[in-house]
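Preliminary data (for renewal application), fe (ii) ion complex.
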Amino acid sequence: MKNYGEIKNLPFKELKGISQKTIEIHWGKLYQGYVKKWQEIQEKLKSVDLSQSNAVFSEQRELKAEETFAANAIILHEAYFDILGGDGKPDGEIVEAIKKNFGSFEKWQEEFKALGLGSRGWVILAYDFNDGKLRNYIADAHNLYGIWGAAPILVLDMYEHSYFIDFGSDKKSYIETFFQNLNWKAINKKFTLLNPPKAVRQSRNLTG
Ligand SMILES: [Fe+2]
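Predicted structure:
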């Protein structure tokens, strides 16, 4: 069960081509900073003055808006780190599901990588509970363009802090390196956990 206020362990020691310095800043400072801010917001909400509620400005309104920024930052960063540290070799049920949803694995990969160049924040392969399909989505900020009911499975962070130290402005090389570090076992685990039972997936023609 997810606990927003708890800092999750990093599931790997090191990555290929992405430096310890980047990981230290990204996971050690930025991700953990979001968890702390989420905790701070929860504390403030306990004593917020509800009588001042207002759609132009009120403390409650601001706290609830920024709660979505912090919570989504936690969800997306954990989803990003969770699936790194592997050998990059695509495998398992998720690969079959991707083929069925996108025509071929290569087509999906091509679209996902192109979105990496087109997004200002995130690229997300999500399982969309609304129609039972896998879809690629982008988010220009943690709480922008999210689809209610779509669960992230494979997440790419395109904020500059993810790559600038190691790749400068060469986003393409960063995206290739990201794919080389993917842990497909972890991606499959996430897919199985988030998904309906196999019988339902088969009935929706999502996977074989
Ligand atoms: Fe990030």
